[in-house]
Structures are given as C-alpha cells and as structure tokens.
Specification:
It contains 11 helices and 51 strands. Helix 1 (23-32) packs antiparallel against helix 2 and helix 6 (240-249) packs antiparallel against helix 7 (262-272). Among the domains are: 89-223, no CATH class; 512-560, no CATH class; 607-687, no CATH class; 703-731, no CATH class; 759-892, Jelly Rolls, CATH 2.60.120.1340. The strands form 15 sheets. A 6-stranded mixed sheet has the order 19-27-28-29-26-20, with no helix packed on it. By secondary structure, the chain is mainly beta.
C-alpha cells in the first residue's frame, strides 16, 4: 500500500505551503543566513495560523467528501492500492492482495483481503452479501445457506495486524490451505502480515451454494488504537481529538510527535468524552470519529474531514499544533479602546452566497448497516426571514460521523456559529500577548454599543513597528456566543447577541448626531427629511438626543446641490488623440433651470503603424532603402513596395558570414482628419544567418557528431560550436551565469573563486565489472571494485561515491533482494547498509544502486579505497552488479 511522504516539513505534503508546519525549516534557514539561533527560533514562532476548521470549511460546499458508501462496502483487486486508515467502528471491504485456486478441479478458492494499513483493535462482525454471519471455533460460517451436505463451504480467518502475528504459520497449519503458488524462496515464510489488518477467506465450490458467484465479503471492525496523553496509554478509542492527535503524530500523517500542544488537546478530548442526553433516551459521547481515510488524499483534506467530526479548529502557532473542539469557553481577557494600537477593520456580514440558513447533507449511518443516508435537515425560518425570504442551503457532508443525532448536533452548531458574522481585525497592546488562537476574549467599545462582547480568536501575530520601535499583537476575532454551541438554543438566543452599530448618516461628534434635511428653495420652504424631485436644497443639521427634532425647528443656510438655471451645465471637453469630445452633461434643473450646452468634438488623432520589411536577396552589401506608395492598415499590405522587399522574412539560410540578411523598419502615419499617409523606412540593417557549425580558422579538432558525442582527436587549438547538437569546445571560458557540471570530464578544476578553497582534485576510477557474486551459500560471495588511491597534500574532505547497475537473472516478478556496498579505507571497513531492490522477472531489467560515504583525510597520508558489493548469501537467485564506478573526490584547502 502507498504511504504518505515521510518528511513532515515538505510542502508537497500539504495543499498549501502556508499551511505546512514549517517552523523548523524556517528557523534552520535563518540560522544558515547567520542569524543567532535563539533569535531565529523566536522569529519562526511568532504567529499562529488557522490550518483548518469549521470557519474555513463550513463555507465551502462538499468540504468532507463522503464518497460512495457502496465503494466502501466492496472488495477490489488493485496492484497499487492506497493505504487506508480506520478510526472508530466501521463496516468495510478491502483490497484482495492474494488469490489462488487449489484442489481437484480447483475446488478451493483462497483470498487474502487487506483491510487497513495498521493494527486494528478487533473484528466485531462478518457479512456475506450484506447478511451478518456467525463463525464457529474453527472459523467456518455456520449459516445454512453456506452449508451443503453438512459441509461448511466458507472458512474465515481474521488477522488484526498485530506486531507478532504470522499469516503464513497460521494458514500453513490448516487443512487444504493455500500452496503459495509462484512464490520465491522465503516469500511464504516471510509473509507474516505484521502491521496489516487482513482477512483470509477460503471458499469450497458448490454450484448451489455459490449460484450467484463469489459473495461480497465485508466486516465490521474497531479500528486503530490511539495514544491518550491524559493517562499515557494506547488503546482503542473513537474520541475525535485523540484520533486527530494520532494522525498528526503518525509516520503516515504529519510525523509531528513533539509538536503537539497536549494541554489543549487534552481539553479537547475531555469535551469529546462528555455524555449528551438524547431525546429518545440514553446518552452518547459528544464527538466521536468513525470512518476510513485514504492516503491518496492530501493531509489538508484529511484534516478537514477530521474537523467535521468535532466541529473543531486546528491551529499551527508558536511551534505547536493546537486543537480546539466545538465547545464554548468563557473569555480570558477583556479589551477596551485603551488597548488598541491602530485602526479597526470590521466586516459586519457575510455575502449572501455564504450566509446559509439551511444545513443538510449525508453521513454513513451505523443504524442502516453503514450505508450512506441523509441526516435530518436543520432549517431556520427565522434566519430565512432575516435573509429576505431567500433560502440558501449548505451541503454539509459528515464522512466520519455514523450517528444521526450526532450529525444533527454538528449541523445545528455549524448553522448557528456561521450566523455570528462579525469579523474584526486590529493591532492590540502587549496585554494581548498571552492570548492564543482558540481563546475567547471580550471587547468593550461604546461607539459600537459593545459591553464585554465576546469574540473567538482565529488569528494571532506579533509585530514590531519599525517607525516607533513599539511592539503590538495583531488579532483576528470572530463573533461568538454561548448560544451558538447550545443544542437547546433557539434563533432568538443568537439575535440577543446582535450589535446595534451607528447609522452611516448619523455620525456627529461629542455625543451629537447629524441629520440631512431637504427643502425646495433657499428659504427652506417645504423642508423634509426625505428628498424628492422638488426638493433641491440641503442642510446638515446637528442635534443631540436620541430622537429626531421637529422639522419646523430646523433652520440654517440652505445649499443647492443641483443645477441652478442652467449655470451648472458642464461643457464637453476637447477630444484627446482622436477620441471625440463627449457632449456636455445637462445641468440638473433647479428652479427655472436650463440645460447646459453640448461640448465641441475633439480633433481625431493620427494612427501610427510600425513594423519591419526584409530584402529577399541575401548579399554582402546593403541594398537601397525601400519605398512604398500606400499601406492598408487592415490587411498589413503595402502597395508599390520596392522590388525584392517584403514583410515576410526569407527562408534561405547561409553559412558564409560575408553574406547577410537585410531588413528595414517602417513607420506609417495616417492623419486622423484627412486619412493622408506618410510612410518612412530606415536604412537597411544586415544580420548573419547561421545554418552550420561555427569555428575559428585555426581549429584542428574533429568536433562532435550528430548525437553530441565528442570525436577524436581532440582539438589543441581554436574553438568550435556544433550547430546540430549545441556542443562547444573552447580552450578557456569565463562563465557569468549557471554552469551545469553534470557532463564535465573528470580532471583538475581551479576553484579559487570558492571562499576558503584554492584547489580541488577530482579522481574518477571506473571498472568494467563491480563485485560480481561468485557464490550463493558462503559469505565470501563478492568481488572488489578497482581501488582508488590518492595522497592529499593538505587536510581534505573525501567523498566516496559508488554507482552501479545490478541485475538478477530469472528473478521472480516483483521479487525484492537486499543488496548494498561495503567501503574499505586503508583496511578499515564501513558498512553502508543494504536496501531492498525490486526485480521484474522475465526481462532481467537492470536496476540502479548507489551509495556515498564521507570522511576527513589527513595531509600527506596515502589512502587506498576499495568497495565491495554485498548480498546476503543463501538466496536462490544471484544478484550481479555491472557497469559501475567508484569515485573518490578529495577537496583540499
């Protein structure tokens, strides 16, 4: 099965680089740039990122791709299947990784079905064609439809994937078991299946029992055992927080064992373990995770699916993963205007597209034998009314939830939390330094009508103001309330939390308000709060109090805001560069107003066309400049263009550098008023076309062939550039860009430009055959590579490199052999270990194998280096290394 990439810092393991846990990589980069180690780690830690959570995912339809549940309840045959991880309790099929028919007329069919890429806790039930069956003490199915003539036809042997299990030993002990056809020596005894949960099934043919063919075989299992930091034990648990921690720390996950904030995670685990009383009676845990994750998905997708199971948020900050489950927490700090260190950015509402008022979707129903089903829809008529009667539904799929009641709680919490819409970002004083993402804080700002209004911290970063030298903490806050997390809360509980922000047309200072009053004339006749076609004068009146003053009491200087007797009509401006001037905008009629006059048209601008023409005859001297009588701007064609001149470039190629291609640039000016044309050509310029090699007149080498291979003899004078391959040969060269040294012939290279180094010597030795195996049953089954000897004149660093192509005649298909090298430096041997190499039997394709070893060499000391090709003896197939080389690179300072 495929596994995730091992390196947790690799951005290729994340859907977005800015979501990758990159603190270590950033810090190490800063250290390499000369930054103090402590400062480097401090800089890498300051900042917290919301990696995934309901805030990000709830607004994205199909955030948890539930897939086809029928696909989960199938068995597939696939040569390159993805590794699957099972958390909680699920029913599933698997991948058929072994199938064999044995016995008289192939009466027995043997199958091994791999279920999970890890040890599971237990098998809970077995199903044949969706019917649950019972196994006897020997593993035979006891239901009558799977028995004929008192002969039980189906045998099932489960393997949990424990580190001590041995599939081969178990199956080899049963009667009429598999024969492991096509096996290589050792393949059968080595087939233990440790760390792979699987199922062995044997079917004994009977035309009545198997009239419908091979039955569908599925099992209900309790999945992975997870570590609980609360009691330091590893055991089966469906606790969502513990499952998230397992993925973050697992090798196939993010491999971040030391980067977990276990204090926050234990709090989240406690929330998940809370008992919730159900309306139908009984209780269930608040949040559990039950489902299958495929490692074909990116870590960000997997974590997003996990967050749906606990309505939680996952953060990366201060060098730790921080998990917060969907649960209300009281505010840890209260801030006022005195704590702000900059302007406030406040988004009060979502767009209508993101402001959903109905939540519906799918989950895998445990009550319906783990088939995909709809959970009860959460609909709010109050929210629909608030949204102008427009229904906007969120399709929230819950791929890791199997309880209908739990799915309803998650859906309602998602809806209610999304209706807390205000998002605020601002810079705060250092009082906010101890606040972390996931905390709840309170804001008291009177101008917004907020008194200890609660917000959830979803973003945190530390800032250093270069202008003032002060430090601030930037917070991004999302409106929240306890009602958003309460299953029993109703819409009105959320509306109590709504803010009454000041009107944008009433924004007076010092407690005063301003209102716009309109009138029909400069005396204030017909004054009103609402303008109409007859009200053309305006007055902004400032008042104090909570209600508008009487309209009759408002007096002041009235200002006309539209045209006055046509005086305000705007004349059109002159056109610029051929663009006609626009008509004047009519003045808006005031009392007895008249329309403004039309502006005059501007002059049309000239049209310019530029290009190049080519002389069609290649010659050594320049031709006369071309002329033409007219030019068609639509078709790009000249009329009357001088003979031998054209707009197309000639296709003839030359090798004689005395013969040139001649061209001239042209400019055509077309008058915008009269359409008259002026055509101007420049004096011809000559260029050389090259279609063959270029070389100096004293070059004495044979150059390169058509494939770019150097011919002999090599040149001793001059230079040469091969046109067909691009290969070149020079005596000396100065390179001012990138030099690719992959094909540089071994020798001595001056490296004076490299800091602290003056010279370096590279010696490459190549043998025709490297370490061919001489035997199969003795330890001395290897041969030596040609030795490398060198005596450095100064202290050096030596890098030993060995590369070879290896073959294995008659290897079985997909057979793996452990092979490697052993380095001998002046009689001291160093093992480089071995690696498993897979061979494809039948074509004997060579496989590459390489190693590198480095050591410090002393000055004026002779070194002899040998390399031995190794293979554990006792194998039935001989592995041979051929066409390899041993390279020793001594770098002298």
């Amino acid at each position: 099965m495929k596994d995730s990439l091992f390196n947790p810092l690799s951005p290729t393991r994340h859907a977005r680089w800015d979501n990758a846990p990159r603190m270590e990589a950033v810090a190490q980069f800063l250290i390499k740039q000369g930054v103090n180690k402590i400062i480097a780690y401090a800089l890498a830690y300051v900042g917290t990122t919301l990696v995934t959570g309901y805030v990000l995912e709830a607004l994205s339809p199909k955030m948890g791709d539930i897939g086809n549940s029928q696909g989960l309840l199938t068995n597939t045959r696939q040569a390159d299947a993805a590794q699957e991880i099972v958390y909680g309790e699920v029913r599933k099929g698997g991948v058929i990784t072994y199938m064999e028919a044995t016995g008289t007329d192939n009466e027995y069919l043997h199958m091994i079905i791999s279920l999970a890429g890890h040890e599971i806790n237990s098998f809970e039930a077995y199903y044949l064609n969706d019917q649950e069956v019972t196994l006897d003490a020997n593993g035979f199915v006891t239901e009558s439809e799977w028995i004929a003539n008192s002969d039980k036809k189906v045998l099932i042997k489960p393997f949990t994937g424990s580190p001590t299990q041995n599939v081969y030993t178990t199956l080899n002990a049963i009667s009429d078991g598999p024969t492991w056809a096509g096996k290589e020596t050792g393949d059968d005894t080595n087939f233990r299946g440790q760390g792979i949960a699987c199922l062995y099934v044997r079917l004994r043919y009977n035309q009545d029992v198997f009239a419908q063919g091979i039955p569908l075989i599925t099992v209900k299992i309790k999945g992975k055992k997870v570590y609980d930091p609360r009691n330091s034990t590893t055991a089966y648990s469906a606790n969502s927080a513990l499952c998230v921690r397992d993925y973050l720390t697992a090798r196939y996950g993010l491999n971040s064992d030391g980067d977990i904030d276990d204090t926050a995670l234990q709090a989240a685990a406690n929330v998940c373990d809370e008992n919730v009383t159900l309306a139908a009676g009984g209780t269930e845990k608040r949040y559990e995770m039950h489902g299958v994750l495929s490692l074909t998905e990116t870590p960000s997708t997997i974590l997003s699916k996990m967050m749906t199971s606990l309505n939680g948020n996952l953060f990366w900050g201060q060098g730790k993963w921080i998990l917060k489950a969907g649960d209300y927490t009281t505010s840890v700090e209260t801030f006022t205007l005195d704590d702000l260190r900059g302007p406030i950015n406040l988004d009060t509402k979502h767009s209508r597209r993101d402001n959903f008022n109905v939540v519906r979707g799918l989950f895998v129903s445990a009550a319906d034998d783990y088939v995909r089903a709809d959970y009860p829809e959460i609909r709010s008529t109050t929210f629909i009314a608030d949204d102008g009667g427009y229904e906007n539904a969120l399709d929230l799929e819950l791929p890791l939830t199997t309880s209908s009641t739990m799915a309803q709680r998650l859906a309602k919490m998602t809806l209610y939390r999304s209706r807390e819409q205000m998002t605020l970002s601002a810079d705060f004083s250092m009082r906010a330094f101890d606040v972390q993402v996931g905390d709840t804080v309170a804001l008291t700002i009177s101008r917004y009508g907020w008194t200890a209004k609660e917000f959830e911290v979803v973003g945190w970063n530390f800032k250093n103001d270069q202008d003032t030298g002060g430090q601030t903490v930037g917070l991004t806050l999302r409106e929240t309330s306890s009602a958003a997390f309460n299953w029993n809360a109703e819409e009105q509980n959320l509306k109590v939390n709504d803010s009454t922000l000041p009107s944008f047309i009433q924004n007076g200072a010092d407690g005063a308000s301003v209102v716009a009053v309109y009138a029909s004339d400069a005396n204030g006749t017909g004054k009103s709060y609402t303008p109409s076609a007859s009200l053309t004068y305006v007055l902004y009146h400032q008042y104090t109090g909570t209600s508008l003053p009487a309209i009759s009491s408002i007096t002041g200087t009235w200002v006309k805001f539209v045209g006055d007797d046509g005086v305000d009509g705007i004349n059109g401006t002159n056109g610029v560069d051929g663009i006609n001037g626009t008509n004047g905008v009519d003045g808006i009629n005031g009392t007895n107003g008249t329309n403004g006059t039309n502006g005059t048209n501007g002059d049309n601008g000239d049209t310019l066309v530029t290009g190049r023409v080519y002389y069609q005859v290649l010659q050594s001297t320049a031709p006369d400049a071309p002329t033409a009588t007219s030019y068609n701007a639509s078709t790009g064609v000249f009329t009357g263009l001088t003979t031998n001149w054209a707009t197309t470039q000639p296709s003839v190629q030359i090798t004689d550098t005395s013969v040139k291609e001649w061209s001239s640039t042209f400019t055509v000016t077309i008058d915008g008023e009269t359409s008259a044309q002026t055509i101007a050509f420049t004096s011809p310029d000559g260029a050389i076309q090259v279609s063959a090699d270029i070389e100096s007149d004293n070059y004495d080498g044979a150059g390169f062939d058509s494939s770019g291979n150097r011919l002999t003899p090599h040149a001793t004078e001059g230079w040469h550039i091969d046109r067909s391959s691009g290969s070149a040969e020079f005596q000396n060269a100065i390179i001012r860009g990138t030099l690719n040294a992959a094909d540089i012939t071994a020798g001595t290279i001056a490296v004076a430009r490299i800091p602290t180094l003056s010279t370096a010597k590279f010696d490459i030795f190549t043998g025709d055959t490297i370490g061919i195996n001489k035997g199969q049953d003795t330890a001395a089954n290897t041969g030596d590579v040609a030795s490398v000897s060198f005596t450095p004149t100064a202290a050096s660093t030596c890098i030993v490199q060995v590369a070879a192509s290896i073959t294995c005649p008659n290897a079985a298909t997909d057979s793996t052999y452990a092979v490697g090298f052993e380095i001998d430096v002046n009689g001291t041997k160093y093992s480089t270990g071995s690696t498993g190499v897979v061979f494809d039997g039948g074509n004997n394709n060579p496989r590459p194998l390489s190693i590198a070893y480095a050591f410090s060499a002393s000055a004026n000391t002779a070194y002899t280096i040998k390399c031995t090709f190794t293979q554990p003896y006792g194998r039935s197939k001989q592995v041979t290394a051929t066409s390899g080389s041993l390279t020793a690179i001594f770098t002298q300072s």
